[in-house]
Design goal:
about 240 residues; 7-stranded antiparallel β-sheet; 6-stranded mixed β-sheet; 1 helix; about 5% helix
Length: about 240
């Protein structure tokens, strides 16, 4: 059954590259080596497969400096570093994980009165891009601490969205448990820290009646990451 591409994301070293309208995944190809012999009777050349090439990943979107990932792409281009990229498809459909270098960058793009500033980048894949289609195990426990706060609904392994309301404290912490996972915490879309499974995060400050969105991305080697969203609201 066909699936929409809406919700597909790409990250550089676990930091999401936001503001994108198109992500072209790796297009793998292979060289050919001719092995036609003098006694070939078909009249056609014969080949065997040679070296494989992971291709390139092309990104298109809107230029926006509030997205840390766009700034990190610029840094990677200038420094020539090899970084880890993960394309995550929606609805746990899979991931492409690969190492790459930025070979082309246009951002901000052409300025005119009709269109927003554009962002375009090309990433050359190094080695083999790995397609993962098995979902990570994900969280086995989730605890938030903050005076007066209540997690709704009660944590369940299959649930991905939560609300932590009624908080009267000036800050909260989140303690996710997921053995053999790397757990990334984002606050309002901005990377905050890596959290060790079973340990509390650093304190996340709150402002009265200004909800914050906490996003936990749980990575397990060669598997599709699982994303959890928690809206936290200080009510008094």
């Amino acid at each position: 059954m066909a699936k929409r591409g809406l919700g597909t994301t790409i990250s550089i070293n676990s930091v999401m590259i936001g503001g994108l309208t198109n992500i072209k995944p790796p297009e793998k190809s292979a060289d050919t080596i001719e092995c036609t012999t003098l006694d070939s009777s078909s009249g056609y050349r014969d080949f065997i497969q040679g070296f494989k090439d992971g291709g390139e990943v092309e990104l298109t979107g809107y230029y926006d400096t509030t997205y840390t990932g766009q700034s990190n792409i610029d840094t990677a281009y200038e420094s020539g570093t090899t970084d880890t990229y993960i394309i995550t498809f929606p609805n746990s459909m899979g991931t492409f994980t690969f190492s790459g270098i930025v070979t082309k960058l246009a951002g901000p793009g052409e300025a005119n009165i009709n269109d927003p500033l554009g962002f375009n980048a090309t990433i050359k894949v190094l080695g083999k891009p790995v397609l993962g289609t098995t979902a990570s195990g994900g969280l086995t426990a989730l605890v938030l601490t903050g005076t007066g706060g209540t997690l709704t609904p009660t944590f369940g392994a299959a649930l991905r969205s939560y609300y932590f309301g009624g908080v009267s404290a000036t800050s909260v912490t989140v303690t996710p448990t997921a053995a053999s996972h790397t757990i990334k915490l984002f606050v309002d879309g901005v990377y905050s820290q890596d959290i060790t499974s079973g340990q509390a995060s650093t304190a996340i400050s709150l402002t009265l009646n200004a909800p914050k969105k906490l996003t936990l991305i749980c990575y397990e080697a060669a598997k599709t990451p699982i994303v959890y969203d928690i809206i936290v609201n200080k009510a008094s």
